[in-house]
Amino acid sequence: QVQLVESGGGLVEAGDSLRLSCTASGRTFSAYAMGWFRRAPGKEREFVAAISSNADKTSYTNSVKGRFTISRDNAKSLLFLQMDNLKPEDTAIYYCSQSSGPFTTSPYNDWGQGTQVTVSS
Fold first, then answer.
1. Which of 13, 30, 49, 72 is the most exposed place for a label (fewest CB within 10 A)?
2. Buried b (16+ CB within 10 A) or exposed e, 51-72
3. By three-state DSSP, how is residue 73 classified?
């Protein structure tokens, strides 16, 4: 069983930056793709970004391309999401997730508790 703990959320103004982190334990971190998802108020959870197990492939939802960057440190079992030029529509609870395989398209079955990101206009 994997444990995922997110941190780094907060209240910022439009145009600001935040860096989210996720600490993973309980499973070989470097063997699995990782992803970030978010749930905005009143909406379904949506995919934000993913990175393959060896970091050779990343993918992003269209609305964050060019503004968000996903990365990982396999030696420290850490996942990151650098969020630049934040917009009010980025306001959501952000969840770290570990997939069941090495590819960004592998199913995501394990989730952290989430960290709140609020962007004021």
1. 13
2. bbbeeeebbbeeebeeebbbeb
3. strand
- What is the pLDDT, as a whole number, of residue 82? 98
Report pLDDT for 55: 96
Give me the pLDDT at residue 1, please. 84
CA distance 7 to 115: 6
Residue numbers in the chain where pLDDT is lower than 50: none
In three-state secondary structure terms, 24 is strand
Side chain identity at 43, as an amino acid letter? K
Sequence-ordered list of residues with C-beta below 8 angstroms from that of 24, at least 6 positions apart, any chain: 2, 3, 4, 34, 77, 78, 79, 96, 98
